[in-house]
Design brief:
The protein has 136 residues and is mostly helical. Helices cover 43% and strands 6% of the residues. It is built from 4 helices and 2 strands. The protein has a two-stranded antiparallel ribbon.
Amino acid sequence: MRCTNCGAELKEGAASCPYCGYSFGTNNGQNYAPYQYQQPPYQQPPYQQPQYQQYPMQEPVEKVTSIGQYIGWSVLAHCLGLISLIICIVFACMGEQKNRANFFRAQLIVWLVLTLIIIIAAVIFTSLGFGFAAML
């Protein structure tokens, strides 16, 4: 006797195939076969071109300011009296060189703070009775 499912040679009167598990018994005239798992065929996903992120062009980097430039700017900002204040205002408003503009903006803040300290000190001293004209 041969298995009708796999064709293996079987003993006569076998109820099922020991190789494939096919059952020869009937239920309402239908043969039973073991469940055969069928794996779906592998489908490779379609190729997709990688998407590269576009970065905008960066602004050119400003040259590093040297220590000598900072020293020169400090002399301009403090040693020429009222002319220094005018120089600070002019260079703070000119934005071509960000380091220089930021330096002179900081110096304007220093000028403002020192002026406020002098005014507050003058008010305190005059309220205590110290006269600046008497000191001369």
